[in-house]
Design goal:
Helices cover 58% and strands 6% of the residues. By secondary structure, the protein is mainly alpha-helical. The protein has a domain of 60 residues: Molybdopterin biosynthesis moea protein, domain 2 (Alpha-Beta Complex), CATH 3.90.105. Strands 1-2 form a two-stranded antiparallel ribbon. It is elongated, with a radius of gyration of 20 Å.
């Protein structure tokens, strides 16, 4: 076995290929869209509702990693209250103000 073949076999053993049918993918995407829509409908009336970090990321349509980058950037992110020692949240009002501040004119 050559060096290249051994590398491929190690990679294949470490990261098996994920196969997903079109139907499974459609179901997964539909479920994600429904979850996002449900979150938006639940929070449409209450401006003082505090979103968890994951909910905030889902509401704005970015990944958790990108959300952490935004919050760590300092003045560029929304105001973040500390819910507990380890949990943070973002109110809908702060999120809306942040989005308006970031809007291009």
């Amino acid at each position: 076995m050559s060096l290249r073949e051994s590398e491929r076999s190690r990679r294949a053993a470490h990261c098996p290929a994920k196969t997903e049918t079109k139907r499974q993918r459609a179901q997964r995407l539909t479920k994600g869209r429904a979850k996002k829509l449900q979150l938006r409908q639940r929070l449409v009336d209450d401006d003082d509702a505090v979103l968890s970090f994951k909910e905030w990321c889902a509401l704005n349509g970015h990944s958790e990693r990108q959300g952490r980058r935004i919050l760590q950037s300092g003045n560029n992110g929304p105001t973040v209250p500390q819910l507990s020692d380890r949990r943070i949240g973002i109110s809908r009002r702060n999120n809306r103000d942040w989005q308006e501040k970031r809007a291009r004119s």
